[in-house]
Amino acid sequence: xxxxxxxxxxxxxxxxxxxxxxxxxxxxxxxxxxxxxxxxxxxxxxxxxxxxxxxxxxxxxxxxxxxxxxxxxxxxxxxxxxxxxxxxxxxxxxxxxxxxxxxxxxxxxxxxxxxxxxxxxxxxxxxxxxxxxxxxxxxxxxxxxxxxxxxxxxxxxxxxxxxxxxxxxxxxxxxxxxxxxxxxxxxxxxxxxxxxxxxxxxxxxxxxxxxxxxxxxxxxxxxxxxxxxxxxxxxxxxxxxxxxxxxxxxxxxxxxxxxxxxxxxxxx
Length: 268
Ligand code: CUA
Known about the structure:
There is one protein chain. The chain is an alpha+beta fold. The chain has 2 domains: 2-63 and 78-108, no CATH class; 115-263, Cupredoxins -  blue copper proteins (Immunoglobulin-like, Sandwich), CATH 2.60.40.420. Helices cover 35% and strands 22% of the residues. The protein has 5 helices and 10 strands. The protein has helices at residues 2-20, 33-63, 79-108, 245-253, 260-263, and strands at 115-122, 125-130, 164-166, 170-174, 179-185, 190-194, 199-203, 209-213, 219-225, 237-243. The protein is elongated. The site of dinuclear copper ion has 9 residues, from loops.
C-alpha cells in the first residue's frame, strides 16, 4: 500500500511541479512559436504516458500484492496486448514526430528577403559581420585569419570592403526583418543559441551552417553557446540588441569606421 501511495504521489508531484515550476521558457521574441507548439505537444503526449504508466504500476502493486495462498499466473505472451501496445505507441510517436517535420521544413526554408549576417564562434567569444551598403558579405576563409583579420575575410573580394566587422561585441538587428545567420567556427564545434528566439544551430569547423529567424520585439537578448567547447564554454556569451528600424539604421550609419577596409587597410 505504501509503495502504491508513493507512486501516486510521484505522479501528482511531477504534474504539480511541471505546472507550478518557475523554470519555464523565456517569453518568445521571434517567429518560432511553432517550436513552442511542438514542445507542448510532446509534453502532453509524454506526460499522459507517464501518468498512465505510473498509475498503472501503482494499481498493479496494490491490486496484485502478496497474499498468502495466492499464486502468480504465468502468461509470457499475449498477441492482443502486444498488437494494442504497438499501435498506441506507434500513434504516440508519430504524433510527436509529424509536427516537427512541418516545423523543420520552415526552419530550413529561408525567406527570399532575409538579410545575411555572419556569426563567427571561436574559443570563447562571438564575432559578427554585417553586409555593408551593398547588402552582400564578402567571401571568407578560416585560413585567412590573422592578427589583423580575425574573421578571415577575403581581401580580394570587392564585396568584403564595406562589410562591418564586430569582433567580440554586440550584434544589433532590426525588428520585424527576417535574418539569415551564417554560422562559422574558427576552431571547434560551438552552438549559436538565443533562448528568446528559440533558434539554435551548431557552428561546425570547415563549413557554413545557417539559421533564420525574424525578431518580433525589441530588446536586449543574450547569445549563449550551447555546445561544450572547452574550459571557457560558460563564459562564451554575446549580446544581441533588437532595435526599431530607424534606430538600427542610425546605428548602422555610425559604423563606417568598422568596415573591413578601414580595419584592415591592406585590404584596399
Ligand atoms: Cu562555444 Cu561552448
